[in-house]
Design a protein that fits this description.
With 144 residues, this protein is an all-alpha fold. The protein contains six helices and no strands.
Length: 144
């Protein structure tokens, strides 16, 4: 692993972990973490993995972002309020670039399963989804 690769991985993981911890406590994903992680991850992981990986990283970012954005819009229409915040959607920009399109199903399955366990076990009024997105991304990233 090159020095650039190690720095990129550590920087993105530090940003998404900070975002997840903040979301867990406050139910907010600050743009300073999510946009910074996306600004590093999208060009960084596409550059790091070579020209053949560019479509996968960009598609992972786009499909992840717009997929969660669709859930956000549909939940607002169906329930009268958003079940996901914009921070979750922006976080997906960096997570999708980090894991790529192929790993999005695993990442989302782990995320939803983790959130479901908390909902079933604790029956909270609200659940921060960001930490589960980060958990899913880390599991799928390590699975690659």
């Amino acid at each position: 692993m090159s020095l650039f690769s190690a720095f990129l991985h550590l920087a993105v993981i530090a940003l998404i972990t900070a975002a997840a911890l903040h979301d867990w406590k406050t139910f907010r994903l600050p743009h300073v973490f999510t946009i910074s992680a996306a600004a590093l991850a999208i060009p960084g992981f596409t550059f790091l993995n070579g020209p053949d990986a560019v479509p996968d990283a960009l598609l992972g970012s786009a499909v992840g972002f717009f997929g969660l954005k669709a859930v956000q819009i549909l939940s607002r229409y169906r329930h009268g309020h958003e079940c996901l915040g914009s921070g979750d959607c922006i976080l997906m920009l960096s997570l999708g670039a980090m894991t790529g399109l192929e790993s999005l199903p695993l990442m989302l399955a782990v995320s939803v399963a983790g959130a479901a366990v908390v909902i079933i076990a604790k029956k909270p009024e609200r659940v921060a989804f960001g930490p589960f997105l980060v958990l899913g991304a880390l599991v799928s990233f390590l699975h690659q």
